[in-house]
Amino acid sequence: MATQQENPTVSISPLLSKLLRQSTGDIKSHDWATANDIAAAITLIFTNELDPDQRSSLLTILHALKRDREILVLAKCGQAMRKAAAQVDQKALRKIIRSRGRKEGSYRGGCCDLVGTGGDGWSTFNVSTTASIVASSLLLISKHGNRASSSTSGSADLLQAIRPTAPVIEAVTAEVLPSVYEKSNYAFLFAPIFHPGMRHVAATRKKMPFRTIFNLLGPLANPIEGNIEARIVGMPQLELGLTFAEALKENKARKGMVVCGEEQLDEISCAGRTHCWRLVERPNPAFRGPRDEEDEDFTTSDEEGGPRTIVDIENFTLEPSDFGLQSHPLSEVSPGKLPKENAEKLMELLRNELPRDDPILDFVLLNTAALFVIAGICDSGTSDMGHGDDGKVIRETGPGGLRWKEGVRRARWAIESGQALASLERYIEASHTATGQ
With 60 as the cut, is the pLDDT of residue 5 above it? Predict the structure, then answer.
């Protein structure tokens, strides 16, 4: 018996015709396919209302015309992907965040993410996942990720390979996420659980001889976007760095940084220069609303003078020396290991068993420190992290006028004090509690 379609199909032939006419230049400005038009078509993929042929045609035309690299298209499609995601009770989550988030410096205690688009071809150690775990010693982390697609070990693969006890990543659903944060600073938001509609395009993506728009949408589609305070996004294509920063800004992100290693790496590179586009949140002089952030969700109506803050984008480069660390060739951190071996290295790092100058340790310190800096905790003039903290804040600034070396000091403390390992253990316990195990 033939499998029935879950929903009746919707034709997007008019949109495809517009796009095709655009490719030949035979189109009037009023007939241009807008970002909203494209996002509406992408939404039909999530609801399985687009037949496979039109699905393939849409992704191909968007790629050929480079429409999938436009700021508004990325922003609107990211919004569509979040709207189609499993919905988290944002109000309940915000209440927990406000009670548990540790405010320090200019960090307000909100959730943070550290994520890359992937596809850089280097198959490095799982640095963003490891760095996110280390950072959860001081920040609330919402790590949005998936299994490997182009590398040997994705973030989900790494977590599931942890021994002796791995987290139950499938158990952390939209319904239980607030309760996970009652017990843990860390949560892994497993993409197939939070974005079930993506299964409808999985087979099509595998057949495409190019990376589609969906390879760029992940960092724009964190299911708790409204509660993400700060993020670092790795982008391996230098020419898209500013575009992606603008797309984040269009999606109302206020604090963040897009990074691209000189080697077309979607991390902060341990080998040399990294190009950075930082979203900088500044007070809006026109704002006339409530001064207490607890009174409302950080924005006001137009009558009150616009939002509480405005966002600018600054561009600079970073090198390991800016963090007080030595450089290491990527060959020392990109052995292409399987999840089991990477998980063993992760646990060695968290148990503080690696040499102080280990290349992978330095790679993780760079990226953890950067998230600490962008979140704002390194702006603090004092430091009282807990046992083992000498309180000696490193006030030296580097590129962007920021305290990168202070970020490393805090990242080392997280590992050497055992707090990073303790944070992972609390997340693992919370994930098992969510299953009733």
Answer: no
Q: Which token pair is 309?
A: 């803050």
Tokens of 205: 């993506």
CA distance between the termini of the chain: 39
User: How far apart, in Å, are the Cα atoms of 138 and each of 104, 111, 330, 359, 413?
Assistant: 9, 11, 28, 23, 10
- The 3-state DSSP class for residue 111 equals strand
Exposure letters 182-209 (e unless 16+ CB within 10 A, then b): eebbbbbbbbebbbebbebbeebbeeee
Cβ of 132: how many Cβ atoms within 10 Å? 28
DSSP-derived secondary structure letter, 32 = P
pLDDT in tens, 194-205: 999 999 999 999
10 Å CB burial of residue 326 (0-12, 13-18, 19+) is exposed
The owner of tokens 């640095």 is 127
Q: Write down the residue that tokens 């490393």 correspond to.
A: 408
Return d(Cα 372, Cα 356) in angstroms, integer. 20
Maximum CA pair distance of the chain? 71
Judge whether 248 and 217 are in contact, CB under 8 Å: no
| E strand or H helix at 283 | strand 274-283
Site of tokens 């930082």: 278
Task: Evaluate if pTM is beyond 0.90.
Answer: yes
Q: What is the 3-state secondary structure (H, E, C) of 360-402?
A: HHHHHHHHHHHHHHHHCHHHCCCCCCCCCCCCCCCCCCCHHHC
Going by C-alpha positions, the residue among 167, 219, 165, 150 that lies closest to residue 191 is 219
DSSP per residue over 126-151, as a string? -HHHHHHHHHTTTSEEEEEE-S-SSS
Which pLDDT tens digit goes with each residue over 358-369?
999 999 999 999
Q: How many CB atoms lie within 10 A of CB 376?
A: 22
Distance CA(268)–CA(233), nearest Å, equals 10
